[in-house]
Amino acid sequence: xxxxxxxxxxxxxxxxxxxxxxxxxxxxxxxxxxxxxxxxxxxxxxxxxxxxxxxxxxxxxxxxxxxxxxxxxxxxxxxxxxxxxxxxxxxxxxxxxxxxxxxxxxxxxxxxxxxxxxxxxxxxxxxxxxxxxxxxxxxxxxxxxxxxxxxxxxxxxxxxxxxxxxxxxxxxxxxxxxxxxxxxxxxxxxxxxxxxxxxxxxxxxxxxxxxxxxxxxxxxxxxxxxxxxxxxxxxxxxxxxxxxxxxxxxxxxxxxxxxxxxxxxxxxxxxxxxxxxxxxxxxxxxxxxxxxxxxxxxxxxxxxxxxxxxxxxxxxxxxxxxxxxxxxxxxxxxxxxxxxxxxxxxxxxxxxxxxxxxxxxxxxxxxxxxxxxxxxxxxxxxxxxxxxxxxxxxxxxxxxxxxxxxxxxxxxxxxxxxxxxxxxxxxxxxxxxxxxxxxxxxxxxxxxxxxxxxxxxxxxxxxxxxxxxxxxxxxxxxxxxxxxxxxxxxxxxxxxxxxxxxxxxxxxxxxxxxxxxxxxxxxxxxxxxxxxxxxxxxxxxxxxxxxxxxxxxxxxxxxxxxxxxxxxxxxxxxxxxxxxxxxxxxxxxxxxxxxxxxxxxxxxxxxxxxxxxxxxxxxxxxxxxxxxxxxxxxxxxxxxxxxxxxxxxxxxxxxxxxxxxxxxxxxxxxxxxxxxxxxxxxxxxxxxxxxxxxxxxxxxxxxxxxxxxxxxxxxxxxxxxxxxxxxx
Length: 728
Description:
With 728 residues, the protein is of the alpha+beta class. It is built from 18 helices and 26 strands. Strands 1, 2, 3, 5, 6, 7, 8, 10, 11, 12, 13 and 14 form a twelve-stranded mixed β-sheet that branches. The protein has a twelve-stranded antiparallel β-sheet with strand order 20-19-18-17-16-15-26-25-24-23-22-21, with helices on both faces. Helix 1 packs across helix 5, helix 2 packs antiparallel against helix 9 and helix 12 (239-252) runs parallel beside helix 14. The longest helix is centred in the N-terminal third of the chain and has 29 residues, at 101-129. The chain is elongated and about 100 Å long. The two termini are 30 Å apart.
């Protein structure tokens, strides 16, 4: 155990490391990164001219100190928000004026102004604009300072060239232009600075690195095709705007992919036009364009994309991850976990096994405005819907079966007086028959139709909970035989246009085997049932907030003890984290299943194997199977994982398929067995599937986990102590 003296000795060092990380994150933020390693390369790039680099570093440190002294958000300081605006302001002024006493005063005042502008602009954006601030505080501050400098005769304009001639002529002209342009984001025009920035970009994100180079080519080509002067570009004060715009639009604030790339490159071409126009408009004021073309173009695109009413591509990112690659990974994980969560979803409103006799876009009545609906019937093992010849409605297996509310809501319509049809006859006068319409949220309703006469148990205005009995199946309206019609819709009247929707937590049966669907759209012929939840399993796999589990872990690195805890962040996301930085997984439990959303941390850890082995756990009262696509990089080598991260937006060069099975033991143990199979060009040619076995028991929770491949144990862990009775 660490002594008090050792802790006290290490505390100053920890503070120094923490502050250095803040400084480096300030540099990294120029290219939307928070990676200290990338920031280190960017910092080195500014020191191609040592005095210029020192001024930039002073701007970072001073801005952080001023923001802290004024009591602004520690989180914003930590992420480098004030630092990178101060850095750019200092570099811009350092390039404009000679160093001296007047310059020092101007720099200090400008940095103070920049901190105030940064805080004010961020507050306005978060409250009203809902778009990222980016480097707008720097541009506004630098414009004011440079314009004011025209009145202050104590400031002397710099005449010395800050260009570094090292490596000039070594690279092809196009590559030299690209490197100079990348470095220009830090007010450095030399090739060495550009190389350092390029390396930092590559470390941060291969996606950002590639789209930056492509954007420099597209933006410059557009500028030259329109007749712009090559000298404007060779100065390289415009080109970096193309790169920043494409990175922002093509991967930072959107999910990377072909559409986002196309949009990002189109934005770089538009940025060329904005740069030309800004140059003319700002010339009379005597101020440079700086990053204005990037700011105007990027925020215009983000404003426009956020105003869309539909959910098209590119997919917007409201809270960007560390890298564009992480944006893609998170989006895929969440899409897999929530199965196209852009659609409203509801529970199956019946009990037992039912067959979908007409699904979406059905061949009979589910067409046009009413295409998104389901018809459910009960069929026997031979596929017949009735017994005793089917001469009366009571002969049908679905007749008089209970119907439940598919979600919480308020009843807005309840039609229950219409008579039931004899089998083979329909009523065209009352198309929907007896119907209950429930309002759920916004403009989303559900309608349950063809109910039995006088069977409805609710009235308009009643609040209902999911699973509450509301009626029984009948044969009213346009219904030739007893069945239940279910649709989500956009209005409160029976027969309103249907809305595309999905069902939650249901099983598709193939003989005696049930395949769990977290969310999906059952099709004609599917034999489905609502998930029968086991309360004991739900409690065993709940991972309550504040819980603690200790495990004895053995793997190829040795034997150790790990402590896992549950955590929660401010937005309410829940995590299971292993102490000592051995991984963390974000998860949800919704009453129907435990679903792991994403894993962060090293590959090969016990937590990583838990994420792979139990990506989802349906709280089923009987054995079920299910399949998932998981992040393949967790089972790939470092090099292959890096390649996959780059190619992922366009072509998944590796796929990791998880096939899981839940079984119940007589002693109350629940076992999840998952087979993991890699496929694709990046998958090892001789790779064998891995198998992960997890055991849960109430009240302990996860009691053991074992990962093996071909008889070789890769990792094994067993519970040694727990405290999971701390749910708040």
